Amino acid sequence: MMNRMALRVGLAEAVVADEPSLRDLLDDTELARADRKRDPAPFVSAHALARRTLARVLHVDPADLAFERRCPTCGSERHGKPSIVARPDWSFSLSYTDTLAVIAVAQGPSVGIDVEHVEEADFDSFDRLTLAEEEGAAFAQVHGRDLLAARAQVWARKEAILKATGHGLVVDPTEVVVTGPESPAALVDWRAEESRPEAVSLADADLRTPDHRCAVAVLAEDALEVHRID
Ligand SMILES: CC(C)(COP(=O)(O)OP(=O)(O)OC[C@H]1O[C@@H](n2cnc3c(N)ncnc32)[C@H](O)[C@@H]1OP(=O)(O)O)[C@@H](O)C(=O)NCCC(=O)NCCS
Questions:
Q1: What is the distance in A from the centroid of ligand 1 to the CA of 111?
Q2: Which of 67, 106, 135, 146 could form a disulfide with 111 if both were Cys (CB 3.0 to 4.6 A apart)?
Q3: Smallest Cα–Cα separation from 53: which of 90, 19, 108, 7?
Q4: What is the pLDDT of residue 5?
């Protein structure tokens, strides 16, 4: 049998900075969105990272990049997964917290990335809101900060898949079953009524920022290989 090539996904991360010069990279629509935020810094840092990274990968000027969106649920072009106008052969995905932004970039199949701060997984209803019944067992013997890190990793796996499909949290994450925190990342079962993607490849991604957990998904059968592009 022929060995399949691993699909290479580029990943870059940036610590959120309240740095006025980052605004110069954004277009008017992005600046207007930034200024509607209580704290614009995470949005500005994330979108500056996206423009810088995509410009480098595609050999274009950051200002020449244009984005469009499409929601697979309602067809609206006002929200949903963003893509690059004129470069449908590339896919990217952006995720950010109050302190960290990450981007994944792939040529070919749709990509999704999610990053979570481990402290954000510190709430009582985590299991009920996020996990299928059988997934909870994998967390039973994990406690303290290890538990938060395990929750954040599994949560990132589920959301990375839902960002690759473009559904986002329109799909209930309890209906997207993934492997437990001690096992290699993989989709185990899709129980949502929205159509199951034909193929999903999933991987955890190591970050330089130890208080976050991250996962990357592509809608392809090929194994995923995450490589740094920052
Ligand atoms: C996608 C989603 C899960 C991300 O939420 P989050 O964890 O708060 O945010 P993250 O930092 O991980 O990701 C945000 C980025 O994901 C991207 N994104 C937004 N919607 C997306 C979607 N449907 N699929 C994939 N990526 C999406 C955008 O780049 C967004 O950044 P921006 O808003 O600054 O442009 C959430 O926004 C969601 O569930 N959206 C779907 C809601 C929806 O479409 N409702 C209407 C249906 S008709």
A1: 13
A2: 106
A3: 90
A4: 79
